Amino acid sequence: MGQALCICLRSAITIDNKRYYFIQKLEEGGFSYVDLVEGAHDGRFYALKRILCHDREGRKEAQTEVEMHRLFNHPNILSLTAHTFMERGGKCEAWLLLPYISMGSLWSVLEKLRDKGSSMPESRILHILHGISEGLKAIHDKGYAHRDLKPTNVLLDENDRPLLMDLGSMNKARIEVRGSREAMTVQDWAAQRCTISYRAPELFNVESHCIIDERTDIWSLGCVLYCMMMLEGPYDLIFQKGDSVALAVQNPVSIPQPFYLYSAFHDTNRCKATLQKIKFLQYLVVAYQW
Question: Which among 51, 120, 174, 279 has most CB atoms closer than 10 A?
Fold first, then answer.
């Protein structure tokens, strides 16, 4: 992992001629850091995502993430407040200034429920599912796919409104694969950018002549729905045990007993009716041929 440019306690940074004060670190990943900063001009908190750009390709990918944010103005997609590229001593970072959502991610909410031995109410699941679906619909309507939908990439605000984040894996929804070389390129890309336990089956073994489209997001959406009900993804344990997720996704998922606590999903007909109430999820019903 490369070293990030140092931001010291209470030091000030400037983006688009506005000053922001560093408060604390929030997250640290392999190629990015997220800091909590405060706007000197408005006193509001923001999340500053700093992406390490090791080369020209890395800078291009960061620029693509910026462009994806700017493409959307939707209540269920995290907005981009400002951005800049910082270069010091031969190092380059992309700084993305984002709204700070204090509730955190959907995954952090689910973890707290699991720790308390509780579960998420059916009405809350459907509310969050509806918002995620609306965000996906906006992305798909523009001809793109998210490609890395998972509970850690969904934020929840104080009103339980879900916001899709981490748009760095987004690309054109429809990818036409022509030949084994292109198939391997797509497969390698998916291995790097699409989280394994939420990755659609067609991305594990890409066929030589096929079309990859936005239905990869629908698979991930189904895994997120499962996670909200079970407090863990359908393939999380398989991955944690070191077993083959690629093999597991080819077979039906066994539904644990707690699933039946959710009356809306208890029988197939009612499950259909519930999903049909969420306009975009008609796609889910058709895609899985219920």
Answer: 51
pTM (predicted TM-score): 0.85
For the chain, state the CA radius of gyration: 20
Residues 213 and 173 in one domain: yes
Domain that holds residue 53: 12-99
Marked catalytic residue, from 35, 115, 141, 148:
148
Q: What is the pLDDT of residue 272?
A: 52
How many beta carbons lie within 10 A of that of residue 59, not counting itself? 17
Conformational region of residue 126, where left means phi above 0, alpha means psi within -120 to 50, and beta covers everything else: alpha
In this structure, the answer to whether residues 184 and 257 fall within a common structural domain is: yes
Domain shared by 167 and 186, yes or no: yes
Q: How many domains, the chain?
A: 2
Q: Tell me: the pLDDT tens digits for 62-93?
A: 999 999 999 999 999 999 999 999 987 778 99
Listed as ranges, residues in the chain with pLDDT below 50 are 1-3, 260, 274-290
Q: Which among 182, 151, 177, 185 is positioned nearest to 166, based on CA atoms?
A: 151
* Catalytic residue list contains 213: no
Tell me the C-alpha distance between 140 and 61, whole Å: 20
